[in-house]
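note to self: the first set is below, dont mix up w the second
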Amino acid sequence: MTTLDYLQSSPINNFFLLAGPCVIEGEQMALDIAAAIAPVCAELGIPYAFKGSYRKANRSRLDSFTGIGDLEALQILRKVGREFGVPVVTDIHTAAEAEMAAEFVDILQIPAFLCRQTDLLVAAAKTGKLVNIKKGQFLSPEAMQFAVQKVLDAGNNQVLLTERGTTFGYQDLLVDYRGIPTMGAYAPVVLDCTHSLQQPNQSAGVTGGRPDLIETIARCGIAAGADGLFLETHPMPQNAMSDGANMLRLDLLPGLLRRLSELRRAVNAINQL
């Protein structure tokens, strides 16, 4: 079974989930997060992939935390996958990183700002791993067919597209739910429920998040037909080393998944009418 087959294998036609911390901060933290999510997903029939960046290459400040070291973080990701029997997903930023990361993870994620980089897409595709391409904030949903085609033309038919909002003014993002069925014609579609809520914080001069709206965004995505959901979570977002303002508190996730599963069942029933 391919990784894509696994994500689409819910016995009750539930959505799949890519979830975990923004960046790997340490082994125990990663294992604790996976231990909190995996059993709930198994109970609800949600195919689950653990998400964690081994390095953050797009920080706003030079002194921002970027990671604990590439090899150490990648080894942790592999350990999580093996201990919990789930695929793992991480970002890559250059073509040279694709082969390295592919030795440790199952899904290579292309950041939104890099979604048109041909060399990066082709390198990711040639590893044979599932490639998750985040839609650029500056692109229309229709434009993502060309990113998908690059992966297909490189000989890999395992590809996902992730909606993460469209730039509205400076830094603020809006989710256009018309993009979900549009992109669904090219590949299965994931909705990023955390980064799509980034908003400008003028007093701090940086972007912040609206974790109080994560459930709203997720519900709308399920209703619009998203195949999967992406979200970042942390036991104590206020203490997270990266993107804490965007993340859902870990103890809130089980209840959210239960409610979203009920919504998915309702949508499935409506689709049968």
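second set (the one i keep forgetting abt)
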Amino acid sequence: MAHITLRQLRVFEAVARHMNFSRAAEELHLSQPAVSIQVKELTAEVGLPLIERLGRRTYLTPAGDEMRHCARAIAQRLREADDAVAQLKGVTGGRLNVAVISAGDYFFPRVLAEFARRHPGVSFNLTVHNREGLLREIADNLTDLAVMVRPPTDPDTVAVPFAPHPYVIVAAPDHPLAAARRIPRAALVREHFIQRERGSDTWNSMREVFGRRFARLSTTMEIRSTETIKQMVVAGMGIAFLSAHTIGLELKSRMLTVLDVEGFPAMLNWYLVHHRSKRLPPVALAFKEFLMREGAALIGRLVHFDFEGVARPGRGASLARPKTSQRARPRSASPTMKD
């Protein structure tokens, strides 16, 4: 096994973690054939099967399980070496490892760009996950910092809010409710929702906001991709509960409209999360301070949303910074639908 490469181990670890070649390819920003080639080459180097298929399901062989542990151990040692070198370099020249929930990838690269402008020489490793994947990143020490909406509540993590995160109900511009004002929340029980998959940050936020009435909502589809949900709504297949930070382009192009529902937008928070025992390198500490100090204002400039003049037919996609009266509240204070 003298010719095994770090690339092969990294790809195999992702496949072994997801037990799915397509999801591993998506995480690594590779094509599925490229992932398959790396796993095939690693298998040839090991000389034993690493993965076996029984029906439609995929399993690790004993050799595959051993290689998974090996890949994780090597990756951990490399991260520790990287952290040690970063401590010597300080902020300038350091490497920031940050993971973000999928709704954040609509604006987070520009947040990183602003941080990079102030700290030349910093490099970045940004990964995007659903909530389950993000929690694994934290638990497996694969990232320095994580940005999410619903942080874990266990005592081993530190979670601090740094910016408000509004959620809205979106529909196609020709939806019967598009021109309505002050839509009662109870009226949404009669609508067909297209929503994120069970367990995702958006799904959990929706459940919290709707409270006991959540179980009475009609869900026609659960989809893992926010982009696909938006396209289904544009096509008139239903309405959706989405982060206001994900719909800017669709509002500008009038492909989507925000329904004027009582109690919306629902205000939650963006949280910065890391393991309590994690020794943050200087660049991560600097980025944490940057977000706590300027994150809310910066995101407000990058993702404009006018709560009073949301885009509807004939009104245009009015975009402006949230008013101060719409400040973020603790998650427990977010509006809920109660009978």
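remember for set 2: The chain has a mean pLDDT of 83.
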